[in-house]
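Ticket closed. Logging final result for Universal stress protein.
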Amino acid sequence: MTYRVVLVPVLGDPADTAALAITGTLVGQMRSHIVGLHVRSPISMAVSGGMFEGAYMSPDILTSLEDARQTVAAAARDSFRRWQEASGIEMAAAPGGSATLSAEWNEVEAAVSTEIGSRGRTTDLVVLARSSREYSAPTDDALHGALFYTGRPVLLVSGAPPADLFGTAVVAWNDSREAAHALAAAWSLLGRAKRIVIFISGEDDALRRSADRLVTHLAWRGYAAATVVSDASQDAGVGLLAVANREGAGLIVMGAYSHSRLRHLVFGGVTSHIFKNTTIPVLMAH
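Final structure:
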């Protein structure tokens, strides 16, 4: 899959720098168009149905909230512009047949998850920074919008970019539709990997046979030789990150929420553990 149009929600957070750097590395050879987006929720959403519901909001408090929102928006805008200019990327609002990378900037006031979901559906990939502030997946509207509403793969970036994004890629395989979807979304990245590790949790014979078939499939595609690594840890998320760190992975590929949506409404299970603890970029699909 070629990521011709990439959406990067810019949060106005220091973590944005890593997400933008990874984006440049990913698409540098693809002549892609990068869509920078900053979404801020209307103050009315905070006052009605939000964290300030039922509280009296004086004009001074409303002004202070708006000032804070504008400060974050300015930080997001400046972060994107600095990266775009330092990377020598042309700004372009419409396709023009350019043979180089291009970018555009959008800033809107709307429900964050809804807006990211809508705009993400008309792109090929969403690259999202995990906030450097205290992280809580259930309240991450940007993450909800990207994973649940776009129908597109999401690359979650946490911390500094790895030294070699395409050195070793770890594919978390549980023989599910979500894992297959993530794999298909990662073909262009796996094709650039120097080494591929297939991670399976537990000692299930049927899953091992499926993983072995995946190794053969990757070989038919002409990719780097793949090996299967199993982990008997009771917690698959802990096992996955342990293997990825041990193997020096620059990228993890995994399906998200392979169990019922209801069970994971509060971001429970393996996906939650990865969100909260990974320091390695994770490409996932729901």
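Confidence is low (pLDDT under 50) at residues 259-268. No further action required.
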